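Q: I'm building a small set of examples for a reading group on sequence design. Run inverse folding on the following structure and report the sequence directly after it, with nothing in between.
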């Protein structure tokens, strides 16, 4: 089947089109839907197979990044969201979307959706960080990351420092819920060194998933980096490839695979 993707939109969100393009290129059908149209029942979550919470600054992040958007979902769409999750479907949240999912409590180590277990705090630099980072896959359970070992992609956030208490961290490790961690180009742990770890995240955590592996939130932006030409080193890599009689592929396959994996999940269903 061809999965239908619900790209969540609302005031302040700004990555809807990039997100839709990435999923459509992977073979999905996408619709950008304002949260108010879901609340008014003009659109229904149940009509879709994948929900994407894109990046941006929902409601200006005035009450904390992603908090107002998450509260609007809790107060109006919570039962619809639970039904969507319990029917075996997928959710991806990137940057502000990860912040929304965190506030919603979609990553509880006991599988109890609605229980918040972690937070995404202000970067230790106390400023908005916009740069490219390396992350590596620490998870064999997550639907979105199958076949990915390491990848290179951008971050753009002011509140991306993952934190939780010690017991929760141990549970996340035990449940195989830590998906991506920041690393250097060689794949070595960032060890909380800036800018390899750009925000001071606990244990270099860049992404986590729920216990089922069907819900993932991540701070870096794969939808902004599916094409090789987007990389800051593109022209250098192009020149090196030219001198070696090689060609640079159009896609950064390790970033595109996140969307392709989600689409492939529904192919035989």
């Amino acid at each position: 089947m061809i999965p239908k993707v619900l790209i969540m939109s609302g005031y302040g969100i700004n990555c809807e089109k990039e997100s839709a393009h990435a999923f459509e290129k992977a073979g999905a059908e996408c619709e950008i839907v304002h949260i108010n149209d879901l609340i008014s029942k003009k659109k229904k979550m149940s009509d879709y197979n994948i929900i994407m919470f894109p990046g941006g600054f929902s409601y200006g992040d005035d009450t904390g990044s992603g908090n107002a958007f998450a509260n609007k979902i809790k107060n109006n769409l919570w039962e619809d969201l639970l039904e969507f999750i319990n029917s075996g479907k997928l959710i991806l949240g990137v940057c502000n979307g990860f912040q929304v999912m965190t506030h919603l409590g979609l990553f509880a180590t006991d599988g109890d959706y609605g229980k918040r277990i972690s937070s995404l705090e202000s970067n230790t630099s106390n400023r908005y960080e916009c740069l490219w980072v390396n992350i590596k896959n620490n998870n064999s359970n997550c639907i979105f990351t199958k076949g990915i070992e390491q990848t290179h992609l951008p971050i753009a956030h002011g509140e991306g420092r993952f934190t939780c208490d010690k017991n929760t961290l141990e549970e996340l490790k035990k449940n195989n819920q830590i998906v991506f961690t920041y690393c250097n180009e060689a794949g070595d742990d960032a060890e909380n060194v800036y800018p390899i770890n750009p925000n001071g995240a606990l244990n270099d955590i860049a992404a986590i998933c729920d216990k089922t592996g069907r819900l993932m939130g991540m701070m870096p932006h794969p939808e902004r980096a599916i094409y090789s030409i987007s990389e800051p080193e593109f022209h250098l890599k192009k020149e090196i490839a030219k001198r070696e009689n090689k060609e640079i592929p159009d896609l950064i396959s390790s970033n595109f695979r996140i969307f392709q994996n989600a689409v492939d999940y529904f192919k035989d269903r």
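DSSP finds eight helices and eleven strands in the chain.
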